[in-house]
């Protein structure tokens, strides 16, 4: 064969080899199939289970979520609820998330006076809507009893919350759950203790364990209040721990309990429940927590 012909054949053979090598390096074998990737390659990170833009919302909880004493004395006012309210000055979580559809796609199943033992029943009613998001704010009434001994135990509080989440998961397994912490009752006492009206109202039976004998600062009164404060902290820890076991649940990261609310955030009638201003503050905290981008695969958000 002439030398020129041999050179052309060698060139074609070399070119074919280079093409085949290029296909393998690119992830394909020579017949077009995808070549196996090296076993040492990093697996893709799973996407977060959290949804920062839910299209429906159900609220469960106690008098705080019902807007009790925010509009009139001794009356619920759900239209100013931080979770589902419709009043513009509150700009509730539902309004922020759902916009014009808020009233048609949100439901408030909270009950004034409710305790953690009651949450499973509320969850059952909320689950019937198959909501994309369920909000929980519960626990103040478990600490606000006639006596320190009458407070809900930490074990019973945990069991009640676990039972409530289990009830929701059975009926609506895909619902996300946002859990707001219990407010700092000790700070509430500190805000109102110098207000003569607050002291008189509190004596009518508003959270006796913390607010009873508001002027007393003797060792026994101090120990009583500190015991209640520790129980609230224990309850909040339970909420965080149980929620962390559910990949579709997140908390506020302690934001509600740590909030430095002032007198303007408290009802002018009982100096205990949130005022309209206080409800708006809760809505803001909740919105930041619910819409926080998730940097981890388990659905837990960074603190708001």
Furnish the topology, listing elements before pairings:
Elements: H1 3-25, E1 57-61, H2 63-66, H3 93-98, E2 106-108, H4 119-127, E3 133-137, H5 140-143, H6 154-171, E4 176-179, H7 185-192, H8 196-202, H9 208-211, H10 219-244, E5 249-251, H11 255-258, H12 276-290
Parallel strand pairs: 1-2, 1-3, 3-4, 4-5
What does this structure look like?
- The protein has 304 residues and is an alpha/beta fold.
- 42% of the residues lie in helices and 7% in strands.
- The protein has twelve helices and five strands.
- The protein has a five-stranded parallel sheet, sandwiched between helices.
- The radius of gyration is 28 Å and the shape is globular.
- The termini are far apart.
- 41% of the residues are buried.
- The N terminus is likely disordered.
How is this structure best summarized?
The chain is of the alpha/beta class and 304 residues long. It has helices spanning 3-25, 63-66, 93-98, 119-127, 140-143, 154-171, 185-192, 196-202, 208-211, 219-244, 255-258, 276-290, and strands at residues 57-61, 106-108, 133-137, 176-179, 249-251.
Order of helices and strands: HEHHEHEHHEHHHHEHH
Summarize the main sheet. Answer: 5 strands, parallel
Helix content: 40-55%
CA-CA gap between termini: 79 Å
SS strand fraction? 5-15%
Q: Which spans have pLDDT < 50 for at least 5 consecutive residues?
A: 1-47, 296-300
Strand order of the largest sheet: 2-1-3-4-5
The outline comes out as globular
How confident is the prediction overall: mean pLDDT?
86
- Overall radius of gyration: 28 Å
Give the count of helical stretches.
12
Extended strand count: 5
Question: Could you say which structural class the secondary elements and strand pairing correspond to?
Answer: alpha/beta
């Amino acid at each position: 064969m002439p030398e020129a012909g041999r050179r052309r054949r060698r060139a074609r053979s070399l070119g074919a080899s280079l093409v085949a090598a290029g296909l393998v390096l690119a992830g394909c074998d020579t017949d077009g199939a995808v070549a196996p990737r090296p076993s040492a390659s990093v697996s893709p990170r799973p996407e977060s289970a959290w949804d920062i833009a839910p299209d429906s919302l159900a609220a469960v909880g106690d008098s705080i979520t019902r807007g009790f004493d925010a509009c009139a004395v001794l009356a619920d006012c759900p239209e100013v609820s931080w979770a589902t309210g419709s009043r513009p000055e509150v700009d509730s979580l539902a309004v922020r998330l759902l916009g014009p559809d808020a009233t048609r796609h949100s439901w408030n199943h909270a009950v004034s006076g409710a305790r953690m033992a009651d949450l499973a029943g509320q969850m059952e009613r909320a689950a019937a809507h198959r909501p994309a998001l369920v909000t929980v704010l519960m626990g103040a009434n478990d600490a606000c009893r006639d006596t320190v001994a009458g407070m809900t135990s930490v074990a019973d509080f945990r069991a009640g919350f676990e039972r409530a989440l289990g009830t929701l998961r059975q009926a609506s397994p895909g619902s996300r759950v946002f859990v707001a912490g219990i407010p700092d009752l000790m700070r509430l006492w500190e805000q109102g203790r110098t207000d003569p009206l607050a002291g008189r109202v509190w004596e009518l039976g508003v959270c006796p364990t913390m607010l009873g004998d508001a002027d007393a600062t003797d060792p026994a009164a101090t120990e009583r209040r500190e015991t209640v404060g520790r129980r609230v902290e224990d309850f909040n820890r339970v909420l965080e721990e149980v929620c962390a076991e559910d990949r579709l649940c997140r908390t506020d990261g302690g934001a509600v309990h740590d909030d430095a609310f002032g007198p303007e955030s408290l009802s002018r009638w009982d100096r205990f429940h949130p005022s309209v201003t206080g409800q708006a503050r809760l809505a803001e905290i909740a919105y930041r927590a619910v819409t926080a981008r998730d940097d981890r695969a388990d659905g837990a958000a960074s603190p708001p």
